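During the no-cost extension, the postdoctoral fellow (Dr. R.K.) reprocessed legacy sequence entries with the updated structure-token encoder. One reprocessed record is reproduced below for audit purposes.
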Amino acid sequence: MRRAYIFLFLFTGIFIVTGCRVETVGDPNRPIKIEAHITIDIRQVKETVSSIEDMVSGKQPAKAEPDKNSKNLAPLEKTCNKTNNRDVNTVDRSLFGSIQLERRFVRNFGIFDRFNNILSVIRKNFLTGLIEYAYAQDEVQAAIESRKARYQTIKDYKRQGLIGENNKGYLIAFSEDSAVKNLVEQENKDRLIIYKSIVEQKGYPRDAISQIEDVSAQEQRDRAESGEKIQLENGEWITK
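Re-encoded structure tokens follow.
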């Protein structure tokens, strides 16, 4: 029976070593290959874009879209500190539940340190992912708040014919005034941050951002008021 347990434990250790490695191959910034069957849910994108524009225009309070995998950084750091101070025989229960490892059993096979290192790598990458997600959410929230703050100024400039909405979801300045051009630049930067976040959250391929831009452009055309300049899909500029 003892040999059976030994064999089972060794097999589990080998599986973890070979199956849970985290490797970086090649350029991490290269485009990710996505299977051809992944398609863009335009209806869902429209709903998301419309919801964001409602936030920007003040129809509803601006707050980040909830995600079941998101966590606050404070509890996350607290968990890290608890993990670092915990007896190394106890595996972090936030990852694998309350699993107790017997020190003498593991040491007999000389793999305790390696097993603990593997768990450390897994834990580090898991927590890093959550932290990166939290920072990304903060960036999107900041972009929405910035757009909300300049919304009325943009509407005033649109009424004056100083700026318009192009067919790619961005503003175009029709004035050489530095204040107008700077506002357009900042607004377009924030819009790009939001478009990218939609692509990432939905798990779409990176080149799908052009479709997000098209959907946003249509949303802006639909919301445009009389007297505002908009660019149609065919490239023609009109005053609505």
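Strands lie at 163-165, 171-173, 229-231, 237-239. The longest helix spans residues 112-159. The remaining legacy entries will be reprocessed before the final report is submitted.
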